[in-house]
Specification:
By secondary structure, the protein is an alpha+beta fold. The chain has helices at residues 5-13, 15-22, 30-41, 72-88, 112-130, 149-153, and strands at 47-48, 53-54, 56-58, 61-66, 94-99, 104-108. The strands form two sheets. A four-stranded mixed β-sheet has the order 3-4-5-6. The protein has a two-stranded antiparallel ribbon with strand order 1-2.
Length: 155
């Protein structure tokens, strides 16, 4: 089972979305495309390593550009997943999440607490993936902009 940073981020947003993404379904809507355009405008380097793809690395920082910080906890754990990779390679980076809509930056550190949180999260994601597709929750505000909205809520 291959874990990815995007899968980890999606797990925080919606377990059903994460499950479908892991199964190979990846829908795109106008909001996703807007986010892609905003991301491209940053001219990220997009470094690809063995099992991860990061937007940029500048100095001591691994950079993740996001349209908004609406899923900040998921993005924080996505960056933590990437930091673990570099830490295991002997490269002590910090993470920086850049919210392109609100022009905010968030710093992510690799430490013992982050390591424990990530291990628990990886176990939770693996357990979810081995099970049946998660039920959809009640319709929430976040569902309106989700690229899986039509799949989950079509009548």
């Amino acid at each position: 089972m291959k874990l990815t940073g995007t899968l980890i981020k999606n797990f925080f947003h919606c377990k059903r979305q994460a499950y479908l993404y892991h199964s190979g379904l990846n829908f795109r809507n106008d909001l996703v495309r807007i986010g892609e355009i905003m991301h491209e405008e940053q001219k990220p380097k997009e470094y690809v390593f063995e099992k991860i793809k990061v937007d940029d690395i500048k100095g001591e920082f691994l950079i993740e550009y996001k349209k908004t910080s609406s899923n900040l906890e998921g993005t924080r754990m996505q960056a933590t997943y990437y930091l673990e990779y570099f830490h295991n390679k002997g490269i002590p980076l910090k993470g920086k999440i850049i919210d392109l809509t609100y022009d905010k930056e968030y710093i992510v550190e690799w430490n013992e607490q982050a390591k424990q949180e990530l291990e628990q999260l990886k176990n939770d994601v693996k357990t979810m993936i081995r099970g049946a597709i998660p039920d959809r929750k009640r319709l929430r505000k976040e569902c309106k902009g989700c690229s899986f909205n039509d799949y989950c809520w079509a009548k």
